[in-house]
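Researcher: Let's walk through a ligand-bound prediction step by step. First, I give you the protein sequence. Second, the SMILES string for zinc ion. Third, you return the three-dimensional complex as structure tokens. Ready?
Model: Ready.
Researcher: Here are steps one and two:
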Amino acid sequence: MRLLFWIVNCMAFVVEAATAAQPSVSTIDDEQMRIDTSRARVMPAGDAWTIVAPMLDDNGDTTLPANFRRWWHFQIDGLDPALGTTLAIEITNAGYEDVITPVWSVDGGRSYERIAGVLPRVASDTHTFTIQTPVGASSIRLAKYFPYTLAMHDAFRASLKGQDVVREEVIGRSSQGRDITMLSLTDASVPDRPKRRVWIQSAVHPAETPAIFTCEGLVSWFVANGTALEEMIVNVVLLPNPDGIALGNYRTTATSVNLEVQWSAPYDSEVPEIVALRETIERFMGTPTAPARSPICLLLNLHASHGEGYPFHFVHEPAYPPNGVIPAVRELEDRWVAAFKRRSAFGALRKTDPKSTLAGRSYVESMMHDRYTLQPAWPPVMAITFEGTYEAGPTPEVPNTPADYRRLGAEMAAAVVDAVRDYPAGELRGTRRAPSESGNPGIHPRISP
Ligand SMILES: [Zn+2]
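Model: Step three, the predicted complex:
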């Protein structure tokens, strides 16, 4: 009798195990998702489940450096909506060691939030943490940090429709044929006179999303403070690498190109994303014999960094030659950074900004220094990289959010107005010195990366 009771009990258990949902993991195209789903595992662990999610190189390209593996985002289905599900998550094969509070979406990707109080343990290349999924959710999305999808980009662009000061232009197409769009912000009703031009680009590295939230905040500020645009033109490329966004790459394009390295020899580059940016910058700068009336005087290259606390700028060492960071550029950089820190309490938390020698002449600012600042036809260009970070926020112990970076972007916009007005008056009036003999835009000092 006892044996029969035991057998019946076992059968009940088997039936229950067979009918209980087992979680499953997946990635969705175009939603900035990436893990190695072919090697992901879901295993029962008592009342909970263990999910092992290996990170995957950009495009699955194993020739890329390990430290390019820094983005993961995936969907988990089959959760228990009645009681919630306990999940022990192991993110393996990681190319970063920062402890970053993960985020989730419980509404199908419409919104994401930090998972309060969940800090991964990081050992070798594995990030481990446990979450309790919310009651009511049969599916969640889980990510290293707040993603930025093409749908979010479309929604942001739609929010600008009808604004007189915003014009949108397609400046090129990515290798997979996606539009690379530029927003031009200016008050077109102001009579034609030289305006001061500013160039902003964000997230050449597609999963560095704090840069994109910063850029959105900056654009929104200018739209809400249109009088600043009577004297300025602000050109913004929010997503220079849309393929990378769609594919869930951390650092590269669909063809595994790290775009910033291309700037060490930009005139040879046939990478379509670089061609789009380079040709548009060339159009705005003009040539040595016919420099543009409103050349770029200030350029911000927005990124995000690992291994750092608060946001910062990479200020440049004055190391010419071969670095085009002449003393006038250094002075402009110092004035810019000071202007930014005056406007942004979050931005001022980092007291000392790291110095960069621009070794290898990567980054778009190299072209601005070498090609324009060193030529007498143009005033010096203040061109610099800004880096957001993934964990520290303006409030101690509270991880940052997109709202923090949008606010920082608004403060950055106010600082741009300060800095441009503070730009040396003679330079701003477009004072032209005689072009040099070698001032041919087709001839450039060749510097190997
Ligand atoms: Zn970057």
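Researcher: And what stands out?
Model: The first helix runs from residue 2 to 19. Residues 8-19, 428-449 have pLDDT under 50 and may be disordered.
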